[in-house]
Each structure stands twice: as C-alpha cells, then as structure tokens.
Amino acid sequence: GLERAVSLSPWDDRWLAEIGLTEMRAAFAANDLGEAWTRLARARSAYERASEVAPQIAEYRSSRARLMAEQASLRPDLVPPREAADALSAALDGDPHGSSTLALVSQGYLRLGMLNEAHHAAHRSAWLYPDFALPMLDVGSIAAEQGRLPAAVDTLQLALGRSWRDAPEMEPVARARLAYVYLESARYREAENEASRALLLDPRSELAARVKADALRAESGD
Question: Which class for 3: exposed (0-12), middle (13-18), buried (19 or more C-beta within 10 A)?
C-alpha cells in the first residue's frame, strides 16, 4: 500500500519515510539474518529516496546513518564500520540538537561499539530532553557495556520512569537490559521479575527469556 502511495505521489516524502520506518522496525525484530539484511537495505533505500525529495529533513539522514551502523554490525565486509561512523558523525553535525537525531546517532554508535561517541550523543540528548526515556536507556546501556553495573542499574531505572514518546517498543528493551544487569550483579530475584515484565510487553524478547531462565536456575542453586 505504501509503495502504491509513493507511485501515485512521488513528490511526497512522507510515504517513503513510512516505508523506511516500517522496514527498519521489521529488520530489528527479525530473527533471520537474511531477512534482517533485506529489510535493512529496503529501509535505507527508502530513507535515501526520502532525503532526495526533502533534503531539509534531518531525521531521514540520521535514520539512514543508523541503518548503516546496523548493516556494518552484521556485514562489515559489505558496509565498512568507518563508513557508517562517518554517516553518523555527519548526521549529528547537521542536526546537533534534534531529539530523534541524537537518539538514532547514539544507538548507531552503540551498535558499532563506539562507546565514547555514543555517550557524548546520549548525554547531550539527556541534558536537552530530560523527560525522554531513550537517552537514559542509552546511557545505562553504555554503563553496562563498560562494566559499571551500579551506574547501569540506576540509569536504567531512571529511564523506566520517563516518557517513551513515540518509541514504546523500547520499554521492553530497557526492562530486558535492566534484568540482565541485575543478573550480572547476582540480584537474581530482581532479574527474574524484570525479565518477566519485559516478556509481558514483548514475548519475543530473547534477552529477557534467557535472563529469566538463568535467574531461575541461579535461585534454585542449579
């Protein structure tokens, strides 16, 4: 239906952006690498076309950069990580205060393992948008990656008390990550409870299911 809308009104960037968003969400939810790659390519193409139609909209460029980071994490032989990092940097330079751009850039850097760059973008977003949950999720994820577990717990708990705005699908991600940090901190009952909450929101969460099973085994002494 969206492709039909594009063919009828090729001057309207909104339909292309909807295709990009739909394909990006499907790619992130895909369990099969081939399907994920195909959808990432479709999403990137849609955002590139949207940028050609409406070059003034920064979010299209930051979405493209985020997709490139995902592609680089899956197939660095096809999308070099340096190329993806350059696209993220350019997106941030072009829109240094946009909430969507900051979130997408931070998540892209995280996917590339560039923690300092990710923290810079997430910290700026948290300062500019103190009620927005996503920056706190990213800051907490960075702390977990760095092994700073108490800081990760505190920050992820803060994220869960804030607004997810138009990204409610990220709440179960935050809960699953908090459950993982609880597990790593040997707080098994809290890990089990948080993983259960994540699974209620997203029964497909592999991280939450794995953490819950590990926490239950640890509690039982197996």
Answer: exposed
Question: How would DSSP label each residue in the chain?
Answer: -HHHHHHH-TT-HHHHHHHHHHHHHHHHH-SSHHHHHHHHHHHHHHHHHHHHH-TT-HHHHHHHHHHHHHHHHH-TTTS-HHHHHHHHHHHHHH-TT-HHHHHHHHHHHHHHT-HHHHHHHHHHHHHH-TTBHHHHHHHHHHHHHTT-HHHHHHHHHHHHTSB-TT-GGGHHHHHHHHHHHHHHTT-HHHHHHHHHHHHHH-TT-HHHHHHHHHHHHHHHT-
Predicted structure pTM score: 0.86
Neighbours of 110 (CB within 10 A): 21
Cβ pair 165, 174 in contact under 8 A: no
Residues, the chain, total? 222
Instruction: Give me the residues of the chain with pLDDT under 50, please.
Output: none
pLDDT of residue 17: 87
Give the other-Cβ count within 10 Å of 184's Cβ: 15
* pLDDT tens per residue, range 31-80: 899 999 999 999 999 999 999 999 999 999 999 999 999 999 999 999 99
Q: Average pLDDT over the chain, rounded to whole? A: 93
Beta carbons of 118 and 88 less than 8 angstroms apart: no
Question: Which two structure tokens, joined as six digits, stand for 102?
Answer: 């900051």
Q: Cα(183)–Cα(152) distance, rounded to whole angstroms?
A: 12
